[in-house]
């Protein structure tokens, strides 16, 4: 199933892949079926849905894509959009994420996609990883069907995970605590997951799990992809077993969190089009506040617009970047929420909103010590934090 909002006057199509973690063995798929049925079956899906963020048809909420044809593909395959296995004797569940995308494309061709100029395959979280895994395959599928003129692009939101060392190593018991590499390694076998050929060739047999990690698959992609990633992604911290429960953070955790931001920033340095705010959050492009977040004075819709223009211009002439229209935007400040446009944080217990300084204190941030390390007066550091410099 999928949801479609047609916009007859537009030759731009936006296909959105929903996210929602995954399951990788019989036990945790059974649990998922019991507790999150809508992520495993279309039976109770509503007849219509309202698009928000980049799927909104309101120009105020979605300045550059509001009048595109919008397709929302719900996530019911639990396989990071990679599976290609039907239900069988030994497997009670079908995992068909990769095939679902192909079928939707086939059907949309008859509904106007055949005359599209641009197809943007977007997704958040597991859907963001799904974009990296499927964008080239979608382009190849359309080429084989004879639609070479359609420009296929990807927009991956919160799906650029690191296969880093966990803060605390745990055995792989459930989806949340299992180290990302181990979960995907098991998942691929369970789902009969497929990864793009060009990425697969970079690794030896049995090592295909590497292609689920953005920084490893990105260099192999042919289609242009815009990567949106919070530097302190909550899902990444969860799989790394850093749990921010409202207790002050221990120094080891605090250093781990800062290091995560550095590692992530590093993996994005060669990504042409990227937007990475130093916030603690997860997913953004379908949030209605997605226009508020800025990196170095540029909002995400504006950066996407600049990217559109740069692809349009580079088709015409060389690759000269557009003046005043940046597409590589990565925060350089080192702490969660050191960017003043980050989404509001709430205390998990009281629900109270917190400003940056309250949040950092709440996390056990030691202003005196940090100021000393940076060679600053404590009051100067506080001033810089609240202004976001």
Automatic annotation (TrEMBL):
InterPro entries listed in its UniProt record: PAE/NOTUM (IPR004963)
MF terms (GO), sorted A to Z: palmitoleyl hydrolase activity
GO BP terms, alphabetized: negative regulation of canonical Wnt signaling pathway
Pfam families attached to this UniProt entry: PAE
Annotated family: Belongs to the pectinacetylesterase family. Notum subfamily.
Name by which UniProt lists this protein: NOTUM carboxylesterase
Organism: Tichodroma muraria
Underlying gene: Notum
């Amino acid at each position: 199933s999928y949801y479609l909002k047609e916009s007859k006057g537009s030759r731009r199509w936006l296909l959105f892949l929903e996210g929602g973690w995954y399951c990788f063995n019989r036990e945790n798929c059974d649990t998922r079926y019991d507790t999150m049925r809508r992520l495993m079956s279309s039976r109770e899906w509503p007849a219509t849905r309202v698009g928000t963020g980049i799927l909104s048809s309101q120009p105020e909420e979605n300045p550059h894509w509001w009048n595109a044809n919008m397709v929302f593909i719900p996530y019911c395959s639990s396989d990071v959009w990679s599976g290609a296995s039907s239900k069988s004797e030994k497997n009670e569940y079908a995992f068909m994420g990769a095939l679902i995308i192909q079928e939707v494309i086939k059907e949309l061709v008859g509904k106007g996609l055949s005359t599209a100029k641009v197809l943007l395959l977007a997704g958040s979280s597991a859907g963001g990883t799904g974009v990296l895994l499927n964008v080239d395959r979608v382009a190849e599928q359309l080429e084989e069907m004879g639609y070479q003129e359609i420009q296929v692009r990807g927009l991956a939101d919160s799906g650029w995970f690191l296969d880093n060392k966990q803060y605390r190593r745990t055995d792989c018991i459930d989806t949340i605590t299992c180290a990302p590499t181990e979960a995907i390694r098991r998942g691929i076998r369970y789902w009969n997951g497929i990864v793009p050929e060009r990425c697969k060739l970079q690794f030896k047999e049995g090592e295909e799990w590497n292609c689920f990690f953005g920084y490893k698959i990105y260099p192999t992609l042919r289609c242009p992809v815009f990567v949106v990633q919070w530097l302190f992604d909550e899902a990444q911290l969860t799989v790394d077993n850093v749990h921010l429960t409202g207790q002050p953070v221990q120094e080891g955790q605090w250093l781990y969190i800062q290091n995560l931001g550095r590692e992530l920033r590093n993996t994005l340095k060669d990504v042409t089009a990227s937007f990475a705010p130093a916030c603690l959050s997860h997913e953004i492009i379908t949030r209605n506040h997605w226009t508020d977040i800025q990196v170095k004075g540029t909002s995400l819709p504006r950066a996407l617009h600049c990217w559109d223009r740069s692809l349009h211009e580079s088709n015409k002439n060389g690759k000269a970047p557009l003046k005043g229209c940046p597409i590589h935007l990565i925060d350089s400040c080192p702490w969660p929420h050191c960017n003043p446009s980050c989404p509001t944080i709430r205390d998990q217990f009281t629900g109270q909103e917190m400003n940056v300084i309250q949040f950092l204190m709440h996390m056990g941030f030691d202003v005196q010590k940090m100021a000393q390390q940076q060679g600053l007066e404590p009051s100067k550091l506080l001033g810089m934090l609240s202004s976001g410099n």
